[in-house]
């Protein structure tokens, strides 16, 4: 244990379950941004000199300026997200980076299933009927409010689920869908990886036998064959607007689209047009390109067949607590030169 | 085949997939109410004399007056619901009754899962943020919009689901919840049926081994132990307001309540109070006592933690088509004195 405590800066109070993990350590001099809003850059720049560990939120850009303000004492940056970080600048300075993968898999898979159900069952329109006090105006009618059923049924025994991106969250979503009677799963993933039927056969073993097929397909087949389609691929330039007019025109009229990954993957304007013109049945999105600057005149907000949530994919009490706890543990391990529970391998950025 | 066709009256056009089942029969004289609203009683009374088969909707009361208007030729009433029928009057006249059980199990189970997810994830509040154009006002914060997670997770490995009523729809709902990591299932059912651990052990075999327990419990234990609680019990005087203040006070603060059966089972005023005061986390209801006369000033509509849908439990294209098809087949079998695919046994009403 060093003689003088190690300085640690945390950019948000992480609540009574997590803060004691840091505050109760004898070897730490803990400094916490005291307000319930994103940290002021000026405050951060003033506190950083001599810092050994920095724990940041999604709201905080970690730039070379920030890293240089901390100076050569900085050993670790611990974060609950990664997209707001200049990873190259961190790697170049040989600073370790802790992050929180996996922890949010269940929360996002839950939300993906919820949005698929809501899109099929016209949830935004039907909730609005009640909210506006219009329920008394509707009498029962054989096909009133009807949408496509997510579950297979005796009259409709097959269901194909499609995944754009087939990582952990996609597989957790598929697991949840199996007892709804999903019979077939198709996916696309990194176009550079060659078609590998052996890998698909291996993957299929993770699921109950009621899933008849699991296979990688082309993007156009993904669009045309999916009854429900989940966008679960990383963001960035490579995947920008993969879901565009051409893709949406290829979908089934009774299908639903769910995006719980990154807003940039879907062309919002094309999706709004597709819903308006009935190329697909409905959509449920937790992310929108340009968020959070999404106002009432946004084309998707205008579209009653689009359920929109304000990016709450990982927003469960259990998951955020798990993320904050892991971030605190990464920080502690990092400043003490121990192995972090979840450190990002930065070797590819170190040339 | 009889010499003169049998007169059949249908109170609503059931669409191009179902009507040919009836219209294409040589032995039938088909009369269909031509409007897209509930049938006028006067029209019905005029058409009924000499009718052999009557196919009715939820909206149509079948009273002794209606039955007498049809007269002694009436052999069968076929319906897509049963609560609007005077069953005793039908039984007394030795008329057969066809109905459509089971067909809607999957649709209602889907909706039950959807509402449980929505209640936990604060769907009404978070959707409203986007609908009102308020998303730009929110910046990320560690616990913003967080609710209890339906799925079990590494930090929270147990989940107990409770069912008030444990029939087909409840079991179909439980099946869907298993891969979310549900570990324990408790239920209450008809209080007259004695506790039977052997039956519970038999029932448990229908589900994967990851479900550790399945057992009948008292009403108070159902309230206190459930992380999510599904009301799936018949309506009527016996179950009226079983979910009342006392029951709701016993629930976990992080639990959610879902009602997809009958509005009368839940005391709406007590539920609104419970949500306002935080006795439980949230609720999702597809049915409300007094529906459809539910206006904006209703106590549950006023409560942001209550998701309300306008009774769309069976409203999927597949299910309503299945219900209409079965109703048509019951009618055909009934008028021809063949066995109906789904006839209600009226012997208990025939003394």
From TrEMBL, chains A, B:
SUPFAM superfamilies linked: Formate/glycerate dehydrogenase catalytic domain-like (SSF52283), NAD(P)-binding Rossmann-fold domains (SSF51735)
Superkingdom assignment: Eukaryota
Oxidoreductase among keywords: yes
Domain D-isomer specific 2-hydroxyacid dehydrogenase NAD-binding residues, every copy: 113-313
D-isomer specific 2-hydroxyacid dehydrogenase catalytic domain boundaries: 8-340
Short name of any one Pfam family annotated for the protein: 2-Hacid_dh_C
A single Gene Ontology CC term: cytosol
Keyword set, alphabetical order: Oxidoreductase
PANTHER family linked: 2-HYDROXYACID DEHYDROGENASE-RELATED, GLYOXYLATE REDUCTASE_HYDROXYPYRUVATE REDUCTASE
Protein name in UniProt: D-isomer specific 2-hydroxyacid dehydrogenase NAD-binding domain-containing protein
